[in-house]
Amino acid sequence: MRRVRGFTLIELLVVIAIIAILIGLLLPAVQKVREAAARAQCTNNLKQIALANMNYESGNGTFLPGVGRNGCCWGTWMVPILPFMEQDNLFRNYKNFDGIDYPSIPGGNRYSANNGTGPTPNGNNFVSSTALKPFTCPSDTPQVWGTRKKHNYVLNAGNTTFFQVSLPLGCTGGTTVGNASGCVSFGGAPFGWYEFSDLVGDSTTPYSGPSPNYPTPESGKMGRPRKVTEITDGTSNTLCVSEVLQGRGDDLRGFSWWGNGAGFVTHMTPNSFEQDVMTGGTPCVEPVNPRMPCTLISTGTRARMAGARSLHTGGVNAALCDGSVRFVVNSVNPSAWRAAGTSMGGETLGLD
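Below the sequence we write its predicted structure tokens.
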């Protein structure tokens, strides 16, 4: 009889070793392909948001408001952009955007399951509990706050702080990129945030009152929408939207229905080791990832602010106000990054 020869143990181990080596060689290539696909999808998302802002301007005469007139919690740019992102049904479900229902309704018409006074369902909870793919970067892991979904894209609040004043608070004689004394002058922004605040809270008390930009007594003071003519640096030289990472658990970074979670500033460079200042939110829950340092303490030198952050290798994607998208490396010159955050600073864009 003819004897059939099988594998020896040594031959089997050699085959297994070869397969392991091949897998080790292929995995980085697969990961690179996945990251390239994620970056491409992220780039497309950012372009859609920037173009939706321009479409909003065509219909309304101004860019989107960064936050509602009453500050942190009565809606952000995420609400008025919805019809321009094929989400008209969600837009119709959101109630009282930038209105004043506090203190007449305890808790206000924010994101709770009811309207603050009884069992009536709150449409805002439904809207903010809806995951929106065009606002989500596939490189990040989707997170929730209760049932409410977090996202990855935020609008440009300028080169200093969400208060949109010079930093450190009260400094004078600075430039938009900073001078020897460390003073960084606010150089304008394409979207309004917490201007007219007391530089402590993210809205004033009471929440109503006349102002130069909102003259009626029932209107608030925050988030003034900008006309395109106010973007004197030009839409091709001014950042519109960039990325942030979604905070874990009660960390509200990425919860873009809330004022502090809806914007970024260019005071710190992309993926900076400087802390985001999330005063007014629930606790910072920092993951193992070192790209998300955070504090709840706002100071005169580092007032409320958040930086652009992503899981892409080496930098973040960002769209300019004309709809073009760039990949900005973490090592970008800080002065160039701050200049890109201003809308009327008169600087030369130098992100390349």
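Confidence is low (pLDDT under 50) at residues 208-215.
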